[in-house]
Specification:
about 800 residues; FAD-bd; eight-stranded parallel β-barrel; single chain; alpha/beta; seven-stranded mixed β-sheet; Bifunctional salicylyl-CoA 5-hydroxylase/oxidoreductase; OxRdtase_FMN_N; YqjM-like
Length: about 800
């Protein structure tokens, strides 16, 4: 298939009548059938290098949503699929000899060969030219010869690689090895089974795709030995190092199937596993910057992949085909149709890929969770991708979810987020934290009425802990001229006013102070005037671990001398003393986001050659000295937390392993919890944003270091908070933007869940508003405009 790269000709404004499809998987076949059905005059040719019955894998899972789309687009295909589907509702999770079952999930699966046969028959009946066992011509020739070329040639797409300069793909290989196998019986449910071996953890993902054939209906299913007693897909997965240590890297196909069957003999009831050109492989996540070029378009795995643990490969390919054909029908010309196809599908695929990444990373790091109680482990597994949540699971299976809540310690009728949590001598009435948010509204470091109203409103709003913005320990340690401080008595008195308001008007709400120093990120404009941009006038000199500007155009800081390090350490201690006298309940040391202490921790910002630079132990030295100095003056009964950036999102920066070591060091020095954030250390970072995208770092630290953690980062709903806490991935959840949008976010979360208890009491003046206001009817009968 590889050939000279030639750009496709400009797209014709007319809709395609001659169409070439590369690849005979479900996506390519379904696109061919739809295109031909909508216009029988089209000439459609599909090339598939393998024979028609030669396929990899065994069962295919499709969602009700995908099936609904198929039903509307081609009822004949939908009817044929319906006749062969195996349906079930339960998920079984087996962990350390205990099986827990969760119901209400709703799956439908059938054999991959059956799916392909149905699509082959449909394509042939419509007149599609199917060419099996034949390599497609060079894509450049196809683009010159046909009006439209659809590349559906899979994860290893030669078409995509031939036009790599245009599509700009990135392919990421992950840390587990897996193999597709099958068992000649039908599991009763989707089954996850975890086995701990002498070499490490292995897991089985299994699901039925054919039920036993009743004797009195011998022709209801395709013939074959596996169809008489049913059949199940079995995927065995383990970390690369476990796979090698077990010697499976040296096992052939037969031996691999035999050893996997022995490993999971309990799940299989002692039955064997069979293979079909099965090999151990690693999952590859494919992302393309573009999906089309001229009259060439990518579809399915050629354009994108999502991990098998959320069962999305065939689903995405079929949905791609539906969307592509719909856009070709709806748009006035092919160029706009291909653009509309990508605009429609890209956000859906991106969302699926984020969920798939969360799922695959959970399984990569499954060893972290093995010591959880079996029922909580099961809940954690079920909610791993963030698509199934606490509230969603409660609707599907209230009995299972209620049992997890009881084991967790939730009082009757109490959502997980409203269970109390203790840090040293401080008991928080719920698990919600108002995250530190810089307001840039102080004058000479003195917080004013704005801070009183801002923090007071959020305290009245029901959060268990309200945090100040980063409060700077010196004038030179400010980020902007509007940053608040604690370097003098006037500032301390102003903070005491706010603290007193919280304690008096919102009893039960704790208020914490975050102490920090801007380092090389100081002397900049207010956020809304130009974030991280140097002041036009009035700049003050900056200091940092090393003389490295934050970004081009930023001021270059001076490397701190030993004497200056001592001065700054004392500034932190003095600010902590003032914070204690102001009455704050908790103190957090800011060692994240590229500010001064964070700058010592990251190898990208610390290039020192003295005892404060080099190895991680040396880079930790100054932040730990500051922590010790603050802890020495901070009241013993009051907790201290530390915020860290668990990754720099940049090559050569802080890694997940580093973050664990950093957290362990602070915990050993007396930190009561680690506030786990990420990034903002270097300007050229490339974060992987997504819903609760930073939580896996908190999860890892919590389980490896055995220290309480605060999770932050795109946690936006009370359902997310409940899910993360009940799964044991975090102890507290810090939310920023949701509290800007709604200062009473926590109280509203209680009202929406029907919770009235000590975890979220409404202030007496607000109790009349503790129920959602009624609105006008939206369900009134509509006027009859036409006769039946």
């Amino acid at each position: 298939m590889a050939g000279p790269l030639m750009p496709p000709p400009p797209t014709s404004p007319a809709m395609p009548t001659r169409i070439a499809i590369i690849g005979g998987g479900p996506g390519g076949l379904y696109a061919a059938a739809l295109l031909k059905r909508l216009d029988p005059t089209r000439e459609i040719t599909l090339w598939e290098r393998n024979p028609p019955n030669d396929t990899f894998g065994f069962g295919v899972v499709l969602s009700d949503e995908t099936l609904g789309g198929i039903e509307h687009a081609d009822p004949q295909v939908h009817e044929a699929l319906q006749a062969h589907f195996t349906r079930w509702d339960d998920i079984d999770i087996v962990h350390r000899g205990t099986r827990h079952t969760s119901g209400g999930h709703g799956f439908a699966a059938l054999g991959r060969r059956t799916l392909l046969r149905i699509l082959h028959d449909r394509c042939r009946s419509l007149g599609v030219d199917l060419r099996f066992g034949t390599e497609a011509p060079y894509p450049s020739w196809l683009c010159e010869t046909y009006d439209l070329v659809i590349a559906a040639d899979g994860v290893h797409s030669a078409t995509r690689e031939a036009y790599a300069e245009v599509f700009r793909p990135t392919v990421e290989t992950h840390r587990c090895r897996y193999i597709w196998l099958a068992a000649d019986f039908a599991f009763e449910a989707f089954r996850f089974e975890i086995v701990e071996t002498e070499h490490g953890v292995a897991q089985l993902h299994g699901y039925p795709y054919a039920r036993p054939v009743p004797d009195h209906h011998p022709a209801t299913r395709p013939s074959g030995p596996q169809d008489q007693s049913g059949a199940s897909t079995v995927i065995v997965e383990m970390r690369e190092e476990v796979w090698r240590a077990a010697g499976l890297d040296r096992a052939d196909e037969r031996e691999s199937a035999e050893r996997c069957a022995k490993l999971f003999a309990d799940a299989l009831g002692g039955r064997p596993l069979r293979s079909n050109n099965s090999t151990w492989t690693t999952f590859r996540t494919v992302v393309n910057e573009r999906w089309s070029h001229g009259n060439l378009v990518l579809l399915g795995d050629a354009a994108h992949t999502a991990h098998f643990s959320i069962g999305s490969g065939t689903k995405l390919a079929v949905e791609d085909a539906l969307a592509l054909v719909a856009c070709l029908e709806e748009q006035p010309d092919q160029e706009r149709a291909l653009k509309a196809y990508e605009e429609e599908r890209r956000p859906v695929v991106a969302s699926t890929q984020r969920a798939a990444r969360a799922s695959l990373e959970w399984f990569e790091n499954i060893a972290l969770h093995l010591d959880q109680p079996p029922r909580q482990f099961a809940f954690n597994l079920l909610t791993r991708s963030r698509r199934v949540t606490h509230d969603n699971l409660r609707l599907r299976d209230a009995q299972f979810t209620g049992a997890v809540e009881r084991e967790f310690g939730c009082p009757p009728g109490t959502p997980p987020m409203f269970t109390p949590f203790r840090l040293r001598g401080l008991t928080l009435r719920n698990r919600v934290v108002v995250s530190p948010m810089d307001m840039y509204s102080a004058t000479d470091g003195v917080p004013g009425d704005f801070h009183l109203v801002h923090l007071g409103a959020r305290a009245l709003g029901g959060a268990g802990l309200v945090m100040t913005e980063m409060v700077c320990v010196s004038p030179e340690g400010r980020i902007t001229p509007g940053c608040a401080g604690l370097w003098n008595t006037r500032q301390a008195d102003a903070w005491r006013r706010t603290v007193n308001f919280v304690h008096e008007q919102a009893p039960g709400t704790a208020i914490g102070v975050q102490l920090g120093h801007s380092g090389r990120k100081g002397s900049t404009k207010l956020m809304w005037e130009g974030i991280d941009e140097p002041l036009d006038t009035g700049n003050w000199p900056l200091t940092a671990a090393s003389p490295l500007p934050y970004k081009p155009g930023s001021q270059t800081p001076r490397a701190l001398s030993r004497a200056q390090l001592t001065d700054i350490r004392e500034q932190f201690a003095s600010a902590a003393l003032r914070a204690a006298r102001s009455g704050f309940d908790l103190l957090e040391l800011h060692c994240a986001h590229g500010y001064l202490l964070s700058g010592f921790l990251s190898p990208l910002t610390n290039r020192r050659t003295d005892r404060y630079g080099g190895s991680l132990d040396h880079r930790l030295r100054f932040p730990l000295e500051v922590f010790d100095a603050v802890r020495a003056v901070w009241p013993e009964e009051r907790p201290m937390t530390v915020r860290i950036s668990a990754t720099d999102w940049a090559d050569g920066g802080t890694t997940g392993d580093d973050a664990v070591a950093i957290a362990r060091a602070f915990a050993a020095h007396g930190a009561d919890a680690i506030d786990v954030s990420t990034g903002q250390v270097v300007a050229d970072e490339q974060p992987e944003y997504g819903r609760s995208y930073q939580t896996p770092y908190a999860d890892r630290i919590r389980h490896e270091v055995r220290v309480p953690v605060i999770a932050v980062g795109a946690i936006s709903s009370w359902d997310d908070v409940n899910s993360l806490i009940l799964a044991g991935r975090t102890d507290l959840c810090a939310l920023a933007r949701p509290h800007l949008y709604d200062p009473h976010w926590t109280l509203h979360a209680a009202a929406e869940q029907g919770y009235e208890g000590p975890g979220a009491p409404w202030p007496a003046p607000y109790r009349a508003g503790s129920r959602r206001p009624t609105t006008g009817r939206a369900d009134a009968p509509r006027p009859r405009l036409t006769l039946s």
